[in-house]
Amino acid sequence: MSQLSIQQLEVLLVEPSSTQHRIIEGYLTELGAPGIRWAQSGEAALMMMQEAIPDLVISTMHLPDMTGTELVLQMREEERLIDIAFMLISSETGIRYLEPLRQAGVVAMLPKPCSQDQLRGSLYAALDFLEPEPLELSHMAPEEMNVLVVDDSFTSRRIIHQMLEKMGIEKICEAENGVEAVEHIEKEFFDLIVTDYNMPEMDGRQLSEFIRQESSQQSVPVLMVTSETDKTRLAGVEKSGVSAIFDKPFNADTLRTTIQRLLA
């Protein structure tokens, strides 16, 4: 578990409803979060972030001036705000709202209403996002690893890159799609490949098939990160030879333990 604690978290709660604010702030206070600021709109939240950067933003989906999706996307476009952990608490189920959130690297998506236990678990996921434990490998040091991250989303690549870097991995190469990844794979050896599924030109399944059938690195661990829910497509991904599949959003602890298991 992260060396940070809930008692050290600076939280910005974005919620227009005073009732929901009171409930969630009550949960956070009972869990030990010391500094909880409250914004009732997206613009107010962005202004407060410019004044003092929080560790974690917890937002509902529907705000008076924008959606929670639009809020996190604006945060990811600003250098000072891009690395803030973001959590959604919402009853929204529409994919047009939720898919961009998954791509933006949210640490958790909780239902509304949520329980205090659900919130506690998500706070621990946020702590691990902010300060993950280092990798512990028996046959190599994390700084000796060479990792390839493949994703057409700059934000998703940055989030995964950040997680790996905080775990102690120093050599991280990036590609925007499978075609670029193949070019890298044909030039250098990798100890681990982390790839998205839905990408233009060559998707993650096609990339995995290339690695297993045509490359000179057929045994390299391949981790697939996806928000895909179609069971037929996921079955095809599994048959392509991926070593593990992660749903978006996923947490740093899951990534770390999976890497340790595959490279033990």
From TrEMBL:
Pfam families: Response_reg (PF00072). PROSITE patterns: RESPONSE_REGULATORY. InterPro entries: Bact_response_regulator, CheY-like_superfamily, Sig_transdc_resp-reg_receiver. Keywords: Cell projection, Cilium, Flagellum, Phosphoprotein, Receptor. Gene3D superfamilies: 3.40.50.2300. The keyword Transferase does not apply. Residues 10-127, 146-263 form the Response regulatory domain. One of its GO terms (biological process) is phosphorelay signal transduction system. This is Chemotaxis regulator - transmits chemoreceptor signals to flagellar motor components CheY. It comes from hydrothermal vent metagenome.
